[in-house]
Amino acid sequence: MDRRSALRKTSLFAGATVIMPSLLSMLQSCKEVNRIDYTPEFFSLEEAGFLAAFADTILPKTSTPGALDVNADVFIDKVVANVYDKKGQEDFKANISKFNDEAKSAYGKPFAELSKEDKNAFLSVKEKEGGKFNSGVWGTAVGEQEPVSFYRSLKSTVLWAYFSSEEIGKNVLSYDPIPGAYLGCIPLEEVGNKWSL
Question: Does the global pTM surpass 0.85?
Answer without folding.
Answer: no
